[in-house]
Amino acid sequence: MSKNNLSSLEKQIVKVLESYPDASIPIPILVDALSLTSKKGTKKLKTAVNRLKQLDILRVSKGNLVRLNEVVVKEDNTLTGILDVTSRGDGYVMVEGRDQDIKIPSRQMSTALDGDTVSVKITGYHKKSSKAIGKIEDIVKRARTTFVGTLTEEAKNTYIIKPDQQSSRVDFFVTPEDLNGAKPGQKVTFSLVNWDDVRGYPQASINHVLGDAGSNEANILSILAEKQFEAEFPAEVESFADDIPDTIPEKEIARRRDMREEVVMTIDPPDAQDFDDGLSIEVLDNGNYYLGVHIADVTHYMPRNSVLDEEAYQRGTSVYMVDRVIPMLPERLSNGVCSLRPNEDKLTYSCFMEIAPNGKVVDHSVEETVIHSRQRFTYSEVQDILDGDRSHPFENQLKTLQTLANILLEKRFREGSIKFETPEPRFVLDDNGKPIDVIVKERIFAHKLIEECMLLANKTVAKHVDQLRGGNKAKNNHPFLYRVHGEPDLEKLQNIKETAKPLGIDLNLNGKVTASKINELLSKVEGTSIENIINGLMLRSMAKAEYSPKNIGHFGLGFKDYAHFTSPIRRYPDVIVHRLLKRYNSGGTEYTYDQLIEDGEHCSEKERYAVEAERDSVKLKQVEYLSDRLGESFKGTISGVTENGLYVVLDDIYCEGMIRVSDLGDDYYVFNPQLHCLTGRSKGKKYRLGDSINAKVTRTDLGKRQIDLIPADY
Question: For residues 93 and 79, is the Cβ–Cβ distance under 8 A?
Fold first, then answer.
């Protein structure tokens, strides 16, 4: 921490705080500690504290509590952080441990791009807000290796790429020899070659042509490329997968628990090909349930550090776009060798659980197995059987699973799981990928049945490792990769409380925030116009679930121990968990604690990118769908109110658009942030959060994925 040019008093303050590095000290105690009891002395101390705050040497929190800032300032007075560039071209550097971002005017951005890790120097403070302003001194690390844009020819043999992301802030130039066959008007992926001088364009080299700009193929592949995913596998990876045999050697079967004579079945969506998991169930003589969750044994076919493994690690996850799946593993494995297809012998890794009628797991084992699935069910087929609309030879097994799932579901919510239910749109596409209808996915009990069995297996394998430790919690004793979820952000919860209050709904935030308090609020809004709004806000207030060897538990599920075990075909963390379990069961080791930290961070990042890509593909199809319905009106619900206008979710198709305040032409509207309301100054008409509204579609923008609306009665 730099202390150059500090006054004597400022150095004394720092010295006191250094004696208590983990404490927040009230200013009155600092006054006493430094014997500054007079009014003049107190004023001097407050002036010194304010200057130290501006220099980022200390922090002052609510209640005038002072503590040292954990941000490390280098000797050249620079800080290191991540650059976030706005669509207007300004940037904000986020420095870990610092309360506020540092604003970077566009002229001080140097050659940095959105997401880059940069070295920044504070050059001053905003007069009104006192927020720091800085300039970028150096690019520490580039965030992206691949960019997406549209190639244009500005003049003969002068080629420019206009990036898709507004935050890229600059166009790129390409020399004719770096076009790689691309033609003007095509969407392309490209890499940054060089950008030394901020006064010129950065130079790029085109990697792949995605298709004609505006086509469905180019739009979808662009979303994937923006998030650093590629649809095609390298040739050497496909070759490795092709060499894997279909048949299972008898020697391999002999060393496993043979479940081929038992009834094992899979339950998946109708269009699924990658069957990760199968179930077996029976009721024991003592009245307990014996549940087997059988998971595709991917690690048997994917040696660690092989080209296949390295590619799967880099992808981190399968990506589920609206019109296609980008698998983590080549199709030969994901839909073939590893997939638990019916009437085929398959290698699996199974979690067997003996469960008492109260839902408690009283015994368990984790074993390598071989199965022969007797039936591939879809969710709707299972639901029909459970509802008595059709019969099936395995009806008894399904009814037993239904009874067990109800027990587990009730127990989970009783013990602290949060009840989130958010609607998801599903698109009906024509042969060209164009949406012709939008329906909201129906969540039936068959979905919950599978979910409860998978949750219990994931929870059980995490507890299994804890038992292997024998009570020794040292991080290097059987390190494991957990799925963890921290407590929600109190400030965001407070905002939700204020959002719900004008509607007569109160969220009790006194004392510790618990799942029961959150469930109480969710139950109050159930069936109301703001149910989906509050559910969405509550989800966004939650810390993001992550992968980590540090087990802090899973707040949303209410589990002290939880891992991802059940989907190794589509999630790399499950691959790691399988390897760890196998090694520990055989008495060996696989990953170090530090390796799991790094792998957990990588997998968490890839998961976030995949979720963003999936959401962007949904938004793209929503915009496409409404592009053919300009001028049509829909019933909607106001999902957000800002000074700029109203966000409206169109109820039947669950598409969100915006009514700009300038398009509320019957009055001058004033924004009330406390009431989440726009009120007409002359006529008193109000637009409030949760209100129903008829909205007309006036404009769509596929590039920005935006939908513009106006009130339908105008």
Answer: yes
Residue 266 lies in a domain: yes
Which residue is listed with tokens 């349930």? 289
**Shortest CA distance to 58 belongs to which of 71, 67, 50?**
67
Nearest partner of 181 among 171, 172, 190, judged by Cα: 190
Judge if 194 and 313 occupy the same domain: no
99 and 22 within one domain: no
Please give the DSSP secondary-structure letter assigned to residue 641: E
* Of 155, 180, 213, the domain-final residue: 213
Task: List b or e across 356-395, with b for residues whose CB sees 16 or more CB atoms inside 10 angstroms.
Answer: eeebebeebebbbbbbbbbbbbbbebbbbbbeeeeeeebe
Cα pseudo-dihedral 378, 379, 381, 385, rounded to 10: 140
- Report how many domains make up the chain: 5
User: What range defines the domain where residue 678 resides?
Assistant: 629-711
Block means of pLDDT (10 residues each) for the chain, 714 residues, are 67 81 76 79 84 76 72 64 85 82 90 92 77 89 88 92 79 94 94 88 94 90 91 95 95 97 95 92 97 98 96 97 94 96 97 98 97 96 96 96 97 90 85 88 92 98 90 80 88 75 72 79 78 78 90 93 97 98 88 95 96 93 94 92 92 89 91 87 90 94 90 77
CATH number, residue 179: 2.40.50.700
Q: Which residue has the tokens 């090694």?
A: 583
| CATH code at position 47 | 1.10.10
Q: Which class for 400: exposed (0-12), middle (13-18), buried (19 or more C-beta within 10 A)?
A: middle
87 and 36 share a domain?
A: no
Domain final residue pick, 49, 68, 87: 68
pTM: 0.84
